[in-house]
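Re: the request from the purification team.
They wanted to know what the chain is likely to look like in 3D before they choose a buffer screen. I agreed to run a prediction and write the result into the notebook, where they can find it.
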Amino acid sequence: MSVTIHLVRHGEVENPKGVIYGRLPGYNLSERGQRQAEAAADRLAAADLGALWASPLERAQETAQAIAARHPGLEIVTDQRIIESATTVEGVGRDVMALLRSPKHWWHFRNPWGPSWGESFSDIKARMLDAIEDARSQAGGRELAIVSHQTPVLVARLALARRRVPPWLAFTPCGTGSVTTLMLEEGKVLSAAYFAPPI
């Protein structure tokens, strides 16, 4: 059976303090992020979507709403399995100096292959693929869009392509507001396309 899957990363987030927000509530799209969400929605406007699933976090929901607006009658399914990856460094600054100033977090970076600072890649892979399979069933042979976050999108893309490397070693692009489209047949990727908003 063939299927087309659109893996969407939410648009840019309003983050004036520059922290790792992870699953923290209250992080919405910035103005630029809203434009990126609209660009992603434009990209998928002609897609024959039978399912639109999104992470429960605000930024993913707002991005999914832009996509849903192009597909009247298509409801957003909110699924916890496609949420951002769990991390022990929520609220810490994004730059290296912020981490160096927080010695209580140093131990969490002992194993980048794990990764030891949060949810394992194998756990992310399992939950993402499980959700994608359920969304595929709901789509009834039509295309599906999954609106999620950087690491889950990268892990899902690599898993669907059957590549066993950590996300950062694959050098796979996944910018905010991006859409990665995979066409699969019998579980094999026939083609892949990547769209990044020019905003």
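For the purification team: The beta strands are 2-9, 49-54, 76-78, 143-148, 179-185, 188-195.
Please add any questions underneath this entry.
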